[in-house]
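REVIEWER CHECKLIST
Item 1: Sequence provided? yes
Item 2: Single chain? yes
Item 3: Sequence as submitted:
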Amino acid sequence: MLFSILALVYIITNRGYCSPSLKWSVTLPISRYQGRVTLKKLFQTGWLVLALSGLLLQAALLLAQFLFAGPANARDLNYQHGFSLFNEQRYPADFSHFNYLNPDAPKGGRLVLSTGEDINNFSDEWDNTIEVAPGMSMTYDHLLIRADDELSGYYGKLAEGVAVTDDLHTIAFRLRPEARWHDGKPLTAHDVHYTYSYAKTTVDGTLFIDWIDSIEVLGDYEIVFHLAEKLTTSNLALFGYVQILPAHYWQGKNPSKATMVPPLGSGPYRVADFAQGRFVRYERVCDYWGRDLPVNRGRSNFDEIRFDVYRDGTVAREALRKSLFDAYVESDLRHWTSSYNIPARDEGLLLMTEAANEIFIGPQAVIAFNSRKAPFNNLLVREALVTAMDYDWLNRVLNHGLFEQPNSYFANSVFASSGLPEAAELEVLEPYRDQIPSRVFTDTYNNPQSSGFGRNREALLRARALLAKAGWKLDDGKLVNKDNEQFRIEFLSSSATQKRILLPYIDALNILGIDAWIRLVETAQLINRRREYDFDAMIQGYQMMVPPDLMGNYFLHSSAANSPVTGNVAGVADPVVDFLLEKLGAATTLEQMIASSRALDRVLLWSFYHVPLHAFSNQRIVHWNKFGRADLDYKHMNQSVFPVGWWYDEQKMTRIPGDVSADTHSCPDSLTSSVVQESPTGL
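Item 4: Structure as written out by the authors:
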């Protein structure tokens, strides 16, 4: 810049370019920000030399500031203890703990849980397709943590401060200097930079963090993310989910490669020992750097957490009844209603607890049709297939009538649509009236209903009429098209337990003349066929979370439709759906988010991409009466049901026969501090 101005002086004074209309703009690069100096009509008088001299001096001063002051502009950002896009932060800067946790919860004891997953991998990073050992998330930390009683309130965990620019295109973090890895080395901004930079090179990263344009490290404890788009609630949430990796540990290694060596972490727990295919045991880190942070008080109360492998649910339930482990999250209502009627329950030793689980919304599972291929790319065909499902019979026979089929992708939340669209939704939808099903505006959506006691004749007749309208006719008991090709549908599955859901449905499809069957394959083959879109339909887990834009892109956006790692199994590739997802993510108020999500909900429902099976409901926990937990009178949006915030009760455990919490690893503040720490094995 200095040389540019000297050249300018030379040109003006030697060539006389002093037109009154002359206008120059000189741009000075100051850090990542741009400062603009405008020169206007400086050459109208004899003050030219004086003006240029002043400009030269100012430029020199600015240049010196740029060269020697470092990243001053970043440091001028207004750092706060947390951030909320909806300005709803409930907790002030000096808060002591989250209200839904007990800061005085005692430390100690062992929690033993079951898992159906083999212990054959400890790396849970991007693009890793091998199931990670349960509990590994406890060994890592994150930049932010979400308050369970707020929709969009996030508070610093690794970050002691967070700053967001007014245009929402930059977010900066100031890290806690006391943060440490388990090997004692400091956790710094260089580790954060490594984590996100690596993630951006992966397939998963292109789906989840492609909105990060660049990353700027401003020292050991300050880092700035420049965003390609405005910060959204889902983007913000990912800063609370992405686990930070140690750069020095992973140097020369591939974080996405499965490993049986537990990686280095920084969290409240670390792997103590394990046996492949049998168990993994975690021990509380006694000198965990973040144990006294306000966001952590009341968490991580168990000295040990162990997962034992039970590949069969029946065996697991029997082991629980014999108190071989402590607690079981029961998802099968058949067993919830009948499998735990034992004397220990009558004596109050075995408890059955239901707790609101409001972080997950909408359907828990769906049957997804592959709309990338015919005939499933036909809206009428998909509607006919949804209509043919007799969910009421399925629920009565398999679930004791206790489940509910959701009429919304965002069921059990304020984001679910109902009735006809109102003013705010109409404003969002109106520009796309000609591109979406007309019934979005005229009809209230409801799933097909039946008596629940047999074949739903009325629904099957409607399905047959829809198929006929789509060009399929019944010929000698077979549903065929104009080329006399029979309608065929193969349900791909790797789980024999899904047969109990699919076989009654297949029976109904057979009545319509459709040749339908189940193809059972190994898990690896299912993954490969799913990646190649070589399937007609399959049952898919569907974990939509609050806020709905967090997982919306993963399950529904066209960018995920043809990605090898995707939740968009149905291949939804609708520009209107894309627009509504983007509008949902760009919402700056709760009202805007509600309007966009309800509009999106209607478009999806009337497009019939999925057969919804059952909605997320209360979490049902069968557990031995040896725990304490915070007793709250209100529900919160992101309920930490189990085991977060629970603790071991030494007095209660004495009543439990053969209690498995004895002889645990312990820290000096534990209930059983005299116990000798077990020696790690298998590492």
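Item 5: Key structural point noted by reviewer: Residues 2-70 form one domain.
Item 6: Recommendation: ____
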